[in-house]
């Protein structure tokens, strides 16, 4: 079997990035299929059913953005620019070794960026409906999921059976249930994890490619946290309990979470991509139509790319009550128009219906606004 080489600039990168390259390269050298994804709307079940590794692709670093801006406009979401920048500079190990990218028509920036990305790597575009409810939306998304199955069959010259899909549904449901159990540890007072720790576990899970071991590690982590927590007398804290909502913020979390916690708040839950938003609902394993079952679960994701996004309000309502939230911070990435526009509705719900303090702000991946963010977080926590 022919081994795949490493990028020319491999030795110039950090140890963490080199290790990521070596881990995924080993799997590729073993003949494993690798499918890259960018969004929680990508139906991982179909990728797993194909016997492939599903890997989240890089889009959280400011580093490759200048290269991306040679093609993409500067006034575009940093996540979109970072994703494309990594792709064209070979600085994302997971993109570099992906056979094909599964993309989706969520925001306008990503849709147009994917047109450019398709020049670099085989890219399959899934046409996501703009309205999450109704028979036609369900039918469209189910057909798109079936079309992905057919594309992977053709691309890899394989056959994906219904039994393969059902096994993948069960596998992914087990992961979702474990992640939700982990997130719900934040309901405790005092919370057993910091906001940075919550996000770190969530982010790292998608880069553990041995799925049985990944789930076993999650199970052990949850049990260890519970055992440690229950072994000591816990004194309730009056630190404000904060819910973070809005855009995907993995690229900005390092300047957000520590600043909030240093200001005196405890981040107890995230209503962002990858958190409860995409893990709250399981795929119905009893549904005889596997494509509709998957489609129905994914259309419950309360993303701002959807019109009349009642799903997000419903989830926020649940999380605010369950986690006994004292304040909500809505963070939108610069030029993330759907989340920025929807912020007004979120503010009305949080302040008028839930009676809680609310802070809305925009940021990007740079560190230039770190001090400004600290000041705003301090004022918000003090107000609570």
UniProtKB/TrEMBL annotation:
The alphabetized UniProt keywords are: Iron, Iron-sulfur, Metal-binding
Q: What are the recorded GO MF terms, alphabetically?
A: hydro-lyase activity; iron-sulfur cluster binding
Is Iron set as a keyword in this record? Answer: yes
User: Which Pfam families does the UniProt entry name for this protein?
Assistant: HGD-D
Q: Which cofactor does it need?
A: [4Fe-4S] cluster
Gene3D superfamilies, sorted: 1.20.1270.370, 3.40.50.11890, 3.40.50.11900
Among InterPro entries, the record links this protein to: FldB/FldC_alpha/beta (IPR010327), YjiM-like (IPR047678)
Q: Metal-binding: is it a keyword of this entry?
A: yes
Which family does this protein fall into? Belongs to the FldB/FldC dehydratase alpha/beta subunit family.
Q: What is this protein called?
A: 2-hydroxyacyl-CoA dehydratase
